[in-house]
Known about the structure:
- There is one protein chain.
- It contains 13 helices and 2 strands.
- By secondary structure, the chain is mainly alpha-helical.
- Helix 3 (44-66) packs parallel to helix 13 (356-396) and helix 12 (314-338) runs antiparallel to helix 13 (356-396).
- The chain has one domain (4-396).
- It is 70% helix and 2% strand.
- A two-stranded antiparallel ribbon has the order 1-2.
Amino acid sequence: xxxxxxxxxxxxxxxxxxxxxxxxxxxxxxxxxxxxxxxxxxxxxxxxxxxxxxxxxxxxxxxxxxxxxxxxxxxxxxxxxxxxxxxxxxxxxxxxxxxxxxxxxxxxxxxxxxxxxxxxxxxxxxxxxxxxxxxxxxxxxxxxxxxxxxxxxxxxxxxxxxxxxxxxxxxxxxxxxxxxxxxxxxxxxxxxxxxxxxxxxxxxxxxxxxxxxxxxxxxxxxxxxxxxxxxxxxxxxxxxxxxxxxxxxxxxxxxxxxxxxxxxxxxxxxxxxxxxxxxxxxxxxxxxxxxxxxxxxxxxxxxxxxxxxxxxxxxxxxxxxxxxxxxxxxxxxxxxxxxxxxxxxxxxxxxxxxxxxxxxxxxxxxxxxxxxxxxxxxxxxxxxxxxxxxxxxxxxx
Length: 397
């Protein structure tokens, strides 16, 4: 193990949790894809092999990123933001609808798809972190500080919300938390929240008044999910997937669950391998494993936050906190949807669910965190060497 960690620098706990979850994802994806096989054809081995490729790429991306100096992350953040905007605009105008949503970009020659919002989330977190540092001391000024930081948030969330409301809402909430930690005046944050709610309400009213414009192609889906969740006793058919997810959790109530591959309800839960991952997981692996999974995510969050708070570079602190909140919020929403606490959304389990772009972007995010941790290690070693050189000199005097 020590030989392995000679190559894997940074926080060892994060590496262990990441490797553990990615390896375990191979088992669960193979077990949870029967519904996908029924709908799209193929075999479980086909999807397992595809997921294995994504896991390999994800680990490669994380390893490559953690060897880089985090200063390049800051320098490239502006370019990443503009690239994210370009990709989101491209998906809006030049891609096909999938379930009334334009989220995916097809990668030429390889036949794989990439969800634009996955890259945009990370790009925004990093860019906002840079702006909070750059505009420090000016954030109370509307023109010089506040608006330059807020406009990128509005642009990215505005481009995402049309086809993926839950992702836009989570990203907006994480951005608000970062603004609060960056000491943006609360009155400015309240104004941003009010403006966002007002803008969304206006768009909804225009959509209802002129549906032919199709401003919000997924508005009916949002409305059904919300009101069906509020009054699910009168919408049994519409809430069948949520009912099956809750039943799967109930069936997995015994401490050890049904056992790997023995789940029955996963064949009736759409997106059992992604959006309803937690329900399928609990059914097959039981309550104890479910608690362990929650603890692993909490430990991962703690280690990320710890790295950020231990840094002397405020940009590193903001980046780590933003990434930690983003990863944890995805896992938390997936769990709340499966347990019926939250309306149905499209958030999967980081590092576990099947999905190439999500896996790669989560790996890239953790690679950035590990590059920061690696730099802290190097600084610590350098400081210890300096102190060891000074001590003999003082002793001779």
